[in-house]
Amino acid sequence: MRFSYSDIKSFKSCRRKWDLSSKNRQGWRKKRKADALFLGSGIHKALEFYYRKGWDLKKTFLAWYNHQINEMIIKTNENRLEMKKEVINNREDFRSMINEFGYNEQKVLGLKMLENYSDTFNNIVKTEKYITMDIGMGNYLSGKIDGIEKDKDGFLWNVEHKTAKNFNPDKLDTNEQPDFYTLFASLVYEKDIVGTIYNVLLKDYYKEPRVLQSGELSTAKNQGTSYKLYMKKAKEIYEDDIPNNIIKYSEWLKKNEKELCVQHKIYKTKKEQHNFKIQLLDTINDMLDNPRIYKNPGLHCNWCDYKEVCLEMDKGGNWKDLLKVEFEK
Ligand code: SF4
């Protein structure tokens, strides 16, 4: 069996969900349109090549996006060559398909997010790699390591690139992801890894400052702009005679500008890493030991992809048909 962090997490949170979703079990995945995964994959690719080869973030993201869209056209039509010609020739139809599925919005957002990226790493010594590790008896631990950072003091850190609407570091205190990836990186690279750095790019961007009907710059605190954009606009409107209230607001903005790119470090002591390793092996043993499958209802059901299937199972309904329509393997 192949154990990934998401597989282990799913087993621990609800065995029914794990049984439906895990590739080691039934392996059903929800069919999706352009979603968070699409954007996140493009941002990851841009960061990977930025740190590996020094490539431009936005150009790489755009190249990745264009490649994905071309692949989609080919995939959609791979067995319908005549159709393929029609779709490719009809640019308007193609454009509306891209808009309908939200890919264009993801492209615009991705480019704006990368525009605001601030690189605060000291030295990224390893870049993104998908790794499978033999843990014996035909079992493997697998996962993707986004990078390894060597800090100014020579300590090595596992790096996790994240795209998120919001980021609350407090939630990571009880989250096992940093434990898993810190341990995984140390096992894979056979080096002491002191923790995990979350490199978070928020799915947001600075808006243009608002200009009132009177032609004055707005001083509303919720306009979501940046100090740089605000001052640029102020100079355009007022030239060298910027009013006091605008200067005062810009000073407030300088201190309160929303951080769109956050690096958060989570240190893991050797004792923590050792304890986590023991718990991980216990969990893996449970997963291997023909586990009983039962559901574990709770708050997490609200964002479970299998909720409808699960409810249908309890009713004794035709949940298998529901799976075939809305899910794929
Ligand atoms: S809806 Fe809840 S109980 Fe049902 S599979 Fe999902 S997580 Fe488990």
Architecture overview:
The chain is an alpha/beta fold. It folds into three domains: 1-31 and 297-329, no CATH class; 32-117, no CATH class; 124-203 and 261-285, Lambda Exonuclease, Chain A (Alpha-Beta Complex). It has 13 helices and eight strands. Helix 8 crosses helix 11. The protein is globular, with a radius of gyration of 24 Å. The relative contact order is 0.14. The mean pLDDT is 90. The protein binds iron/sulfur cluster. Iron/sulfur cluster binds next to helix 2 and helix 12.
What binds here, in terms of ligands, is: iron/sulfur cluster
Class based on secondary structure composition and strand pairing: alpha/beta
- The H-and-E topology, N to C, reads as EHHEHHHHHEEEHEHHEHHHE
Q: Could you estimate the helical fraction of the residues in percent?
A: 40-55%
| Domain module tally | 3
Largest sheet properties: 6 strands, mixed
β-strand amount: 15-25%
Enter the CATH topology name of the largest domain.
Answer: Lambda Exonuclease, Chain A
TL;DR?
This protein is an alpha/beta fold.
Question: Which short descriptors sum up this protein?
Answer:
329 residues, alpha/beta, six-stranded mixed sheet, two-stranded antiparallel sheet, 8 strands, binds iron/sulfur cluster
